Amino acid sequence: MEVNLRIFRYNPEAGRNKPSYDNYTLEADPTDRVLDLLELVKSYHDGTLSFRRSCAHGVCGSDAMRINGRNYLACKVLVQDVGNNITVEPILGMQIIKDMIVDMEPFFESYRSISPFLVNDEIPEDGKERLQTIEQRERFDDTTKCILCAACTTSCPSFWSNDEFVGPATIVNAHRFIFDSRDTAPEKRLDILNEESGAWKCRTAFNCTQACPREIHVTQAIAEVKNALTTGRLD
Amino acid sequence: MTSLVDSFRTTMRGYLTYRGREGHLAFLLHRLTGLGTLLFLIIHIVDTSFVYFAPHLYAETIELYRSTPFMIGEIFLVFSVIYHGVNGVRIAVVDMWLPHKWTLTAQKNWTRWAVLITIVLWLPAAFIMFRSMLVHNFGFGG
Ligand code: HEM
Ligand code: SF4
Ligand code: FES
Question: Model's pTM, two decimal places?
Answer without folding.
Answer: 0.93
